[in-house]
Amino acid sequence: MDVKRTRSPRAPGVDADEDKKRAAEWRGAVRPQMVLVGFLITLPVLVFIFGGRWGSFPSSSSNSPSSSVPSVGGRHVVPGGVTTTQKTEAPKNVSAPTTSLSQDKLLGGLLSAAFEESTCQSRYKSSLYRKKSPFPLSPYLVQKLRKYEGYHKKCGPGTKRYRKAIKQLKAGRNVDNAECKYVVWFPCNGLGNRMLTIASTFLYALLSDRVLLMHVAPEQEGLFCEPFPGSSWVLPGDFPYNNPQNLHIGAPESYVNMLKNNVVRNDDPSSVPASSLPPYVYLHVEQFRLKLSDNVFCDEDQMILKKFNWMILKSDSYFAPALFMTPMYEKELEKMFPQKESVFHHIGRYLFHPTNKVWGIVSRYYEAYLARVDEKIGFQIRIFPEKPIKFENMYDQLMRCIREQRLLPELGTAEPTNTTTDAGKVKAVLIASLYSGYYEKIRGMYYENPTKTGEIVAVYQPSHEEQQQYTSNEHNQKALAEIYLLSYCDKIAMSAWSTFGYVAYSFAGVKPWILLRPDWDKERSEVACVRSTSVEPCLHSPPILGCRAKKEVDVATVKPYVRHCEDVGFGLKLFDS
């Protein structure tokens, strides 16, 4: 029943003039001296009550950068109406962060503080979902990044220097002693490949003093925030060579084809004036027959390439390891990355920040299902069309890996009677796959059976798209969100050859277990999984590094910081012994 508040009726004989008279008497009774005395008496009480709340760090029980994300009660709705419930108490062994918010959000100086936080919330918040980086940041890399940001702001789109450079390009001129030089990146293949190649291209831009510009295709629009303060890395639409169809291995502007056709020479780079070169050069750094098709990682080639003011680059590979094998860059890279396997970990976390729309997907999902668990385990399953694996075989391999590496608790036959130290702890399993079968089976296993230790296992899968859609913007938004969610896991097991998985575990700074491919003539892999020696991605198709001798050189036998990849035997990976 509604309760209504009513006013007492006016007493007889009291008119409006008397009301005004009483109000005036009351105002005169409250003197300034009385207000001051009252304030001084209550001030200590106010300080005691409210002082500890202002500027405090978010509660450790939430383990999140923001408490404003609404909870959805721990229920996870999945296709088909199936729901799972999640225990919502605070984890037993979660301690408060030991560093301040300002230190965490800048990642020790990796990120610039020159951005308005609200324009890209993930830039300063996403790292708060992860453990502290295992790799100390080189002060020289920080210095290099700040210097680059100034260079990009001076020469980027919309500046007088950029307009001048474009005018020269359109006129077909490559001038001597140009103040600004550029490398223009064009996309190839899926999102994981693109992120790896963008990071590689940016590292190349740092080494060769170029401004990185990106051709943003429709399927990539709205995924990433701008990484450089006061400027843009998006290639303007009026760029004269904006047609990706013209960028292929046979393009006459390709550096290798220029060498073949005697358009340029690399036998005496110092004698070649920049003004004698074409207006731009194209680098086709794409794998071809399991080798990078352009051999551009030799000093003499780099000395010629440095003379081009405009460079267009298209790649599907993580070619950063090849830069470490280029003699003229070795010393600089040593100063930037004293720990070799931290390259993508640092460069990727510097460059890639999901837009607010994508970050909303990430943060809501994390807060709803992952924020209050004791441990997060991620499984990423990718089936490639060139080597299809039956679902039953892949699932069996995943379960063998889980058992052998003890990634999840063993099942029991009855509820445990003895209380263990792990009893009641919650482990969240995050599955990233195009297919729902792995989620259904693992969830059913832990739904129907208790664990021997009394631990609780909750299983989640954000989406299952059934097939990869390179050219779908919505698909890429979901893929980016799941890369970030996977990167918040404490342990990761992933499919061999997957660039999606490479990006996630490198962000996390976690060495994954890799689910090996079966041999080409077999349906099952004898070895379920192996632990990676490094958090670096794999370069699937290494270049020929004999340079002018053009002979095969196994770099893994001559460089102490290079090994062959666990999942791609001929591939190369940076690592620290």
TrEMBL record:
Purpose of the protein: May be involved in cell wall biosynthesis.
Name the record gives this protein: Fucosyltransferase
GO biological process per UniProt: cell wall biogenesis; cell wall organization; xyloglucan biosynthetic process
Domain of life: Eukaryota
Biased amino acid composition, Low complexity: 59-82
The keyword Glycosyltransferase is assigned to this record: yes
Pfam families, sorted: XG_FTase
Annotated spans, Disordered: 1-22, 59-100
Signal peptide (residue range): none
Keyword tags: Cell wall biogenesis/degradation, Glycoprotein, Glycosyltransferase, Golgi apparatus, Membrane, Transferase, Transmembrane, Transmembrane helix
Family, per entry: Belongs to the glycosyltransferase 37 family.
Broadest EC class assigned to this enzyme: transferase
One annotated Gene Ontology cellular component of this protein: Golgi cisterna membrane
InterPro entries per the UniProt record, alphabetical: XG_FTase
Gene3D superfamilies with a match to the protein in the record: 3.40.50.11340, 3.40.50.11350
Transmembrane domains' residue ranges: 35-55
Species: Oryza meyeriana var. granulata
GO molecular function, one term: galactoside 2-alpha-L-fucosyltransferase activity
EC number annotated for this UniProt entry: 2.4.1.-
Annotated compartments: Golgi apparatus, Golgi stack membrane
Membrane topology: Single-pass type II membrane protein
